[in-house]
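Example record

The entry below shows one chain as it appears in the dataset: sequence first, then structure tokens.
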Amino acid sequence: MSPVLSVTSAQLGAWVVAFVWPFVRMLALISSSPVFGEKKVARQIKVALAALLAIAIAPTLGPMPDVPLFSAGGVWILIQQVLIGTAMGFSMRLVFAAVQAAGDYAGLQMGLSFASLFDPNNGGNTMVLSSLLNMLAMLIFLAVDGHLMMISTLVESFHVLPVSDAPLAAEGWHFLALAGANVFSAALMLALPLIGALLTLNLAMGILNRASPQLSIFAVGFPLTLLGGILMLQQLMPHLAPFMEQQFALGLADMLQVARAFRQ
């Protein structure tokens, strides 16, 4: 007579809890992170990826809190996992926000403020140069296996900040706000060579206009500014990958730092 496999309701509930809570954190990060969180990626793919990751790492995690899933405590833990995953994904997305801001700064100096297109991720118009730099940053991110390192950091966050019913510390939100301030400094560091060159070119054209008023500086200035910006952008391209690798490393470190800051 073959043995009968019996599963109690307590065991089934423990298995469901061990899958659902990590799954929620992973789905929140995938939905808010760069590359994975793009609107071009289908929702079914995001859910399937989060489910596969949860199935893969659930056995490696420690014991889960002894809280029923369908209870006030279980819902509170679910909300916490959503907040943790979203905050970690947002801290990585700040790196790409800096790239887009650098494109906006440079595009304004080049006279490309009217050259914009609709970006479904932002829900509004974005400058062409900003979209170009963002696309290049995503390609560099994939080329250096940044998406794999981001998933590895997510898995490590379960050891830094295990699933529990303890409230999240306010230091996590404070650190996330400080990380948002770095967007402007990183964007200026990336766009400063181009902005400085274009400012010098504009000053030279201003002096030329004072020396020769007969020269229509408005007719000549725009093509020269655009051409100078394109030439400076060409000189900037070889240095984009090393700069972005450094920013990606800082973004991954910020993800773990946010998880540590949330811990009481």
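Notes for this example: Helices lie at 9-32, 43-57, 72-110, 128-143, 146-160, 171-211, 217-236, 240-262. The chain has eight helices and two strands.
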